[in-house]
Structure to design on (153 residues):
């Protein structure tokens, strides 16, 4: 068998996935994204698309659906003829990061680590100062930060 015939007899992996997805989900024409897409284009052009083509369009441009986020706040703000939508999403990132995004993520990790370390160090120093003051130990005569006096009053 020649290479040309071999290529024709083996189905493409994308075609297999498209056929499986169409067969599993029923008609692709029932999909909300596809229906909205076909409503926006002329009928004769819409009828010329095959199911596999429509599935590929959905895979390229379709929405992924609403993902589950730990915090999902969506509201509209405005008035007097202007409206803006406000969306605040917070949750675990499941995407693969690009090189630039990895650098930014690492910089944030370092900044948060430094900030957390500073906060922990400050709490330890203040706690030790309060314990020293509670025990009545005076390391620097005639000098006080006034924190113990303020707290005990």
């Amino acid at each position: 068998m020649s290479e040309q015939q071999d290529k024709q007899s083996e189905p493409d992996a994308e075609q297999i996935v498209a056929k499986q997805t169409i067969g599993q989900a029923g008609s692709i024409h029932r999909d909300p994204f596809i229906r909205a897409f076909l409503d926006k284009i002329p009928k004769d052009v819409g009828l010329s698309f095959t199911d596999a083509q429509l599935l590929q369009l959905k895979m390229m441009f379709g929405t992924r659906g609403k993902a589950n986020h730990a915090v999902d706040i969506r509201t509209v703000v405005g008035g007097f003829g202007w409206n803006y939508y406000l969306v605040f999403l917070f949750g675990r990132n499941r995407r693969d990061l690009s090189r630039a995004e990895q650098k930014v993520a690492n910089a944030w990790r370092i900044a948060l680590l430094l900030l957390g370390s500073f906060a922990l160090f400050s709490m330890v120093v203040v706690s030790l100062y309060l314990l020293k003051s509670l025990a009545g130990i005076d390391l620097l005569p005639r000098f006080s930060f006034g924190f113990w006096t303020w707290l005990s009053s």
